[in-house]
Specification:
The protein starts with 7 loop residues before the first strand and ends in an 18-residue tail after the last strand. By secondary structure, the protein is α/β, with parallel strands linked by helices. It contains 19 helices and twelve strands.
Length: about 475
């Protein structure tokens, strides 16, 4: 019988798994490492984990036998069938009250299903978002755990010791029930898509519209990183732009302009559509990647389709750079506003009690979207926990107001120069739509009633539905109403 020495086990020895194990070891936790390919366990123990307290296992039975009770097992494998496969193998080996933690990018619906499945077996399940990439996993990720709350006291000390810290506060706290942790991570990744696309559009405007070279642009991003836009993604963009290949030329300019994706941005956009929440900037960021992947088609189209005659800006260069900064900042505010709108809608749908200020704190350090900006989001929700939209907070209302003229100038100039700005433009369109007391949807309702008898409400009689025989030849039977 193996000795129960390990505080937690981790299944999956890819980069994230190995680094999380080493991080836990640094903080005094005894970790049992397991991988389906057991040779990887031996290699890890003989190399990166050499001279540590980390132990290995060559079977799930051996791994479970080495764990202290309640047993805590973290799975870090490819989302989907692989996670279900390990859960099915673990269930017969575990006792009531033992805990399984999924730290991968699982879809929140899968986490909801697994919570229910394991509750029926008397086991506790946690679906936790893990953000920060390789370095974050090793030295302090942002962690977003959700699921069976009874598990939290048993994993809290481990999670809060290994996570990133912001102003001495752990970037990890309990998020909410069933799929809440993975849902919050999904929205985090959607916002990440938006941030990256916005930065790329700023880069495109400076490169093509202003004819700037990579060193010049790197200096601009470095300067921006010292102000309101201070963030991990702005910082690494400055570093990427100044990085030289072996021949002394910028490496970034040699990289094929076809962006990949793993699905979490798409899931966020789909969720926005499912719950009627206009996550337009995130959706445009996903579509921008899809368009980029049509590289061969774009090359052919570039020789056929005409754009404006003038593709370079002829006005004040420094003023335009400042306007790009303002457009980027205002659009970033809209991106987060949309993300938190979606979180609020999902919380209402699933009965989650989400702490929005706490979520902003979790994202304040360790994760890919970490930025000074997130501190202001936490302050907004601390001031008003019932805030319906970040744009209505005084700080963000004033910030967007101060950026507005530059933002509009950039979107307009992008159109005039033929430089696509899907994220910057959709953010502005959302802002103008959200601040409009009246939108032209009355005409849509009239059209729907005209061709499909879908009915409409009158401004003077909200809640009462009417149908009009618009042509005099239609009937008086109307369709049942349904949500947008």
């Amino acid at each position: 019988m193996a000795e129960q020495v390990a505080d937690i086990a981790l299944i999956g020895l890819a980069v994230m798994g190995q680094n999380l194990i080493l991080n836990m070891n640094d903080h005094g936790w005894v970790v049992c490492a397991y991988n389906r390919t057991t040779e990887k366990v031996d290699k890890f123990l003989a190399s990166e984990a050499k001279d540590t307290k980390i132990v290995g296992a060559h079977s799930l039975q051996e791994m479970v036998a080495k764990l202290k009770k309640p047993r805590r097992i973290m799975i870090l494998v490819k989302a989907g069938a692989a996670v279900d496969g390990f859960i099915d193998k673990l269930i017969p080996l575990l006792d009531k009250g033992d805990i399984i933690i999924d730290g991968g990018n699982s879809e929140y619906q899968d986490t909801q299903r697994r919570c229910q499945q394991l509750a029926e077996k008397g086991l506790l399940y946690v679906g936790s978002g893990v953000s920060g990439g390789e370095e974050g996993a090793r030295f302090g990720p942002s962690l977003m755990p959700g699921g069976h709350k009874e598990a939290w006291p048993h994993i809290k000390d481990i999670f809060q010791s290994i996570c990133a810290k912001s102003d001495s506060e752990p970037c990890c706290d309990w998020v909410g029930e069933d799929g809440a942790g993975h849902y919050v991570k999904m929205v985090h990744n959607g916002i990440e898509y938006g941030d990256m696309q916005l930065i790329c559009e700023a880069y495109h405007l400076m490169k093509t519209g202003l004819g700037m070279d990579c060193d010049e642009m790197s200096e601009v991003f470095t300067k921006w990183n010292q102000g309101e836009l201070d963030s991990f993604l702005i910082e690494i963009t400055a570093n990427i732009l100044k990085f030289k290949d072996t021949d002394g030329s910028p490496l970034v300019e040699k990289i094929r302009d076809a962006a990949g994706q793993k699905g979490t941005g798409k899931w966020t956009a789909i969720s926005g559509l499912d719950y009627g929440t206009p996550t337009t900037l995130i959706a445009e960021s996903v579509f921008a990647r899809c368009l980029s992947s049509l590289k061969d088609e774009r090359v052919k189209a570039s020789n056929v389709l005409e754009g404006p005659g003038e593709a370079e800006y002829s006005g004040d260069k420094q003023a335009f750079i400042e306007n790009i900064r303002k457009a980027l900042y205002a659009s970033k505010i809209v991106s987060y506003a949309q993300g938190f709108m979606l979180l609020r809608e999902a919380a209402a749908k699933f009965g989650w009690n989400l702490n929005y200020g706490g979520i902003a704190l979790m994202w304040r350090g360790g994760c890919i979207i970490r930025s000074v900006f997130l501190g202001k989001i936490k302050e907004a929700f601390d001031k008003n926990s019932q805030l319906t939209n970040l744009l209505l907070d005084d700080f963000f209302k004033d910030a967007v107001g101060n950026c507005q003229s530059g933002w509009r100038a950039v979107v307009a100039q992008g159109a005039l120069l033929g430089i696509p700005t899907p994220a910057l433009s959709s953010a502005l369109a959302f802002y103008d739509g959200y601040r409009s007391a009246v939108l032209p949807a009355n005409l849509i309702q009239a059209q729907r009633d005209y061709f499909g008898a879908h009915t409409y409400e009158l401004t003077a009689e909200p809640g009462k539905f009417h149908h009009t025989n618009w042509t005099g030849t239609g009937g008086n039977v109307s369709a049942t109403t349904y949500d947008v």
